[in-house]
């Protein structure tokens, strides 16, 4: 099993550009999450999904949209990137209660 | 906002035990205590979780105070690979809130 994979690993965007981050899991998990982590800080929840076709806002949802069209994929979109969205983005999935599996992260820089 | 309090950093020698404290004075009866760790340049990794009783697994032990207002994560024999940021999280559902955690340094 690959576990949780994230695409791309690195990306540089100019202010105002858009992009989509892809998260995929092969563990048949129902719950999936997107977090961001700024330097020296803990992770903050952006959006999450409790099953295919569902999404919900987390702690810091502004400026992001998500979709969960297939159970194994959770997409995070930035419609108009801003420098404040420079961060490392982590995706996670959860099957067994309370044990989340994280991907390796995507490092995004917005100039 | 994170609801737990942890020291910013701790140091340990290799092959010695590490005791990581966590205060969660606002914990409710349905809140679990979760521990995750994050190695450098990686995503967080699940370590252990518990509700009331002490818990053991292959990675660590979790000792929970009788009043549940504090807990201690115990790494029995630290290795260099255990150098990481350790997060103590109080949560009663599937949404976790990460604070700044405790940075553990292991000296060879």
What would you note in describing this structure?
The complex is a heterodimer of chains A (111) and B (108). Chain A has strands at residues 4-7, 10-13, 19-25, 31-37, 43-49, 56-57, 65-67, 73-78, 87-94, 100-102, 106-110. Chain A has 111 residues and is mainly β. In chain A, strands 2, 4, 5, 6, 9, 10 and 11 form a 7-stranded mixed sheet that branches. In chain A, strands 1-3-8-7 form a 4-stranded antiparallel sheet, with no helix packed on it. In chain A, a hairpin with a 6-residue loop joins β5 and β6. The model of chain A has no long low-confidence stretch (mean pLDDT 95). Chain B has 108 residues and is mainly β. Chain B is 0% helix and 46% strand. Chain B has strands at residues 9-13, 18-23, 32-38, 45-50, 55-56, 61-64, 70-75, 84-91, 102-107. In chain B, the strands form 2 sheets. Chain B has a 5-stranded mixed sheet, with no helix packed on it. In chain B, strands 2-7-6-5 form a 4-stranded antiparallel sheet, with no helix packed on it. In chain B, a hairpin with a 6-residue loop joins β3 (32-38) and β4 (45-50). Classes of the chains: A mainly beta (111), B mainly beta (108). The A-B interface holds A 4, 31, 35, 40-45, 48, 50, 58-59, 90, 92, 94, 97-105 and B 2, 32, 34, 36, 41-46, 49, 87, 91, 94-101.
């Amino acid at each position: 099993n690959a576990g949780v994979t994230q695409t791309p690993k690195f990306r540089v965007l100019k202010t105002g550009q858009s992009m989509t981050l892809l998260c995929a899991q092969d563990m048949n998990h129902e719950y999936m999450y997107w977090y961001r982590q700024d330097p020296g800080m803990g992770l903050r929840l952006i959006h999450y999904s409790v099953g295919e076709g569902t999404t919900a806002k987390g702690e810091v949802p502004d400026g992001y949209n998500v979709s969960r069209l297939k159970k194994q994929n959770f997409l995070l979109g930035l419609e108009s990137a801003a420098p404040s969205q420079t961060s490392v983005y982590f995706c996670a999935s959860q099957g067994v209660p309370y044990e989340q599996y994280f991907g390796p992260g995507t490092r995004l820089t917005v100039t | 906002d994170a609801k737990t309090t942890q020291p910013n950093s701790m140091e340990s020698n290799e092959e010695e035990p590490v005791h990581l404290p966590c205060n969660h004075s606002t914990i409710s009866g349905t809140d679990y205590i979760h521990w995750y760790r994050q190695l450098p340049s990686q995503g967080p990794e699940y370590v252990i979780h518990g509700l009331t009783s002490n818990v053991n697994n292959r990675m660590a032990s979790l000792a929970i105070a009788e009043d549940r207002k504090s807990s201690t994560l115990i790494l029995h024999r630290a290795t260099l690979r255990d150098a990481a940021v350790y997060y103590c999280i109080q949560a009663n559902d599937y949404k976790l809130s990460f604070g700044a955690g405790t940075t553990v340094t292991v000296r060879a």
